[in-house]
User: Fold these one by one.
Assistant:
Number 1:
Amino acid sequence: MPEFRKDPAVYRWVIIATERAKRPIRPDASDTAQCPFCAGNENMTPPEILVLRDKSDPSSFPNWTVRVVPNKYPALVPEGSATQITDENYEVHSGIGAHEVIIESPYHVTDMALLEETQFEAILRAYRHRIMELRTDRRFRYILIYKNQGVEAGATLEHVHSQLIAMPMVPKLVLEEINAAKNYYEANRRCVFCDAIRKETDGGERFVIENARYLVMCPFAPRFPYETWILPKKHSSFFEHNTQQDDDDLAVILRETLIRLNRSLSGPAFNYLIHSSPLERGENNDYHWHMEIIPKLIQVGGFEWGSGSYINPVTPEQSARSLRAALT
Amino acid sequence: MPEFRKDPAVYRWVIIATERAKRPIRPDASDTAQCPFCAGNENMTPPEILVLRDKSDPSSFPNWTVRVVPNKYPALVPEGSATQITDENYEVHSGIGAHEVIIESPYHVTDMALLEETQFEAILRAYRHRIMELRTDRRFRYILIYKNQGVEAGATLEHVHSQLIAMPMVPKLVLEEINAAKNYYEANRRCVFCDAIRKETDGGERFVIENARYLVMCPFAPRFPYETWILPKKHSSFFEHNTQQDDDDLAVILRETLIRLNRSLSGPAFNYLIHSSPLERGENNDYHWHMEIIPKLIQVGGFEWGSGSYINPVTPEQSARSLRAALT
């Protein structure tokens, strides 16, 4: 059973999950007969939790557009209670949670940017459905959706997919972001993310693109070159409160952002993640959900692991300029 | 000129250093005639700040054992004052600091574990000398020594070297560690690191090796597989307060630890870093300097970037067992 352990010095929980050591290091990518995410190989994954189908022709092959399955090598497991075990100073918490895989296409596509807009819509719908179901489980306090595309970004399978982890605690970085946003709101009576949106809209130097409901920008103090954020223009604390129309607009702009990153950077490995409010909070004035996209261009080294600070050789103004020009 | 930028949401300074974009991506490693760190190529680096020589024969070639030079592509620069510039909500601080390279051998050795014990002693002496000099500059509040060995660990040059960054602020992670250690001390009137040492000495399951003055152990809640710490047994807040005899003992145990990591893991890329007290504090009861060694075995992905939490597939008890057995 996996476990959470708290560092006795730094306030940071790590997940010790020895099951994950059994993951294949790097399975033969070219042999799609062996790809557990391809249509026809559904029996190679654990039974599915959710399947979305294209209603126009239910008898067609493949007969699904998006599947969600439990991660075969989970970092957290759903069984058991969230009992805390404390060995003197050493805090341990049983590794309760959910770890799911969202298979984003029935075909062996390896770059999300190549998917159709309708497929992006289906993926976002799958994210939302899974969050809505998991948030009814009162043991969970936070749900993180994330994607690793490319070996350098941590992917072990190349077939397009993302992942979801539900956990019994709010993770450190989210807590820090929430606390900082709360403090900002208390001081200014404005949301710090809304302020950034206002600042970048209409000729802001970190502005990338926008549509009716979303703004894409490079953040002011990015950890990484070409780090790019997507924010809803209308203040909202929870990704899963999106309407169908919100998702459709997000699908369009996420796809275009990934295409622009591909053009600017020749198809980089990347991560993305969705930062949304902790489950127990309601809609609030201070926290604004958003998506962070992080191309994997530089190696993180001793300075970063030792300081928690980052050296970024590219300004967000340069990144934004390059992304704005990418499709012209 | 580089700059520090503070994220308006999370409390985290990043260093935006566009000079570093000019670094060679991966110079031809095998051509030692082109290696700026090899003896004979001294003119390929900026003028040296410190050079250690083997006194027994000053006329020999090479005529040095360790050289310290400014980083040619610095993340921070020594000129200028530490003026803070604030653009509305966006805090910027000029990128004042020092960024130095410690060249750890005159020969083209690529694995630190292959160096002699006397060479390790010289390297530690160089670290200490540089810190002692830089700490007289009142603009600096923290000095971090770190090493990146191997491309996967962030090294761009393969010749053995480490780096030093002096900066005008205490970095986030060090601040967190210090605050947590202070809280622990206030609650327990004992140092949290001393407690860990006591727990692991004499058959502790995360114990690796020890000598008269140092203990090597895997920490209770490691971020990474085979993460290994070296701690002085006698409580001390500053690495640079080490005596010559302390350094000699550290040289022996650091070398043996790296050899054991090599045996257990077939010569992994790795980082190490020294966590010492901020410069403005004196010796104190709560903070205990130590060295953290992090082999680069797994890719960090969207979960880690989004949560600040880590999934580690290897328990520290497994890592310690493997390291204990590595030379038997």
Number 2:
Amino acid sequence: MILVHLIVVLALIQFIVFGILVGRARGQYGVKAPATTGHEIFERYYRVQMNTLELLILLLPAMWIALSYLSPAWISLAGAIYLVGRVVYLRAYVKDPSKRAFGFGLSIMPINALLIAILVGVGMHYFNGVPI
Amino acid sequence: MILVHLIVVLALIQFIVFGILVGRARGQYGVKAPATTGHEIFERYYRVQMNTLELLILLLPAMWIALSYLSPAWISLAGAIYLVGRVVYLRAYVKDPSKRAFGFGLSIMPINALLIAILVGVGMHYFNGVPI
Amino acid sequence: MILVHLIVVLALIQFIVFGILVGRARGQYGVKAPATTGHEIFERYYRVQMNTLELLILLLPAMWIALSYLSPAWISLAGAIYLVGRVVYLRAYVKDPSKRAFGFGLSIMPINALLIAILVGVGMHYFNGVPI
């Protein structure tokens, strides 16, 4: 369980760092709040942060619920792959947004795997007569 | 509990599908990343996804905490109404954004109900002397 | 535990209120969906809501996991400071976006404190031989 906690905290810290990069890009490229457009490179950093937010809302509940069906080691592995995927995504997106697919796939793949594992677990519990 | 897990996973999969629709609309209407504007129909799909993100951050903790105060059957019913509400919202918004209110109401109503149930439950626990 | 539940529900209700303010600003300043730009004051309210979403995805899991390492009273205090910080942030941002730093700091500071407490807790558990 403490490994799962560690991975979740790392995912949250990574998201904070992505937010800091957006703030830095605001200054660097002269995009004043409340604007979120106006300079291509700023927009790339901003989209990386938003896309990461969209994945976190999937990853965190998936990791949490998976604890009822999978060992913490597998869940932590999924989270670790996500963390690496996000770094790949950030680097690719900022360099060239059209190259973002691989990093995105690498970070959503473990989320999909967790969701499938939960569905299988729910199905097995149901057929074994666990009360709904 | 497995029914609540199932409903949460369905809400997450629904959000992934909304994301896929945004990606498809990017290609269809020629809105290249990192832009999120440039074609009205793309923007409608994008706003549906963002609005769903805003509701998920409410729904998921509300369902989770409600487990301390409500039966899983009621919580699952709330989640199921949310799921239907989101489909209504998607269809209405993409057709005509000014018609989005009913689907929005249908998907936030069960969230409000869960929040009220938690507040009542917290209040009852407090007056029954449950330690804070 | 019921105090932590109460604080989480208050944070969710606060986010709903911020969403209502965005909706009201839509009407007031004539920004029709799906647009999220077009009037400076609307954009300020919208950015307050989005920034709050970015913090909620940090705060909620941090509060949850912290329950394994900290007393509910400390976690509730962190959440209460966050709530105040968000009100300060809203008022400052809508008045003048360049003055938003203090409110932002006040609302992310308790999140950072929770994350650090979790990291310390995980480390102590690990060195005390708690299985990962």
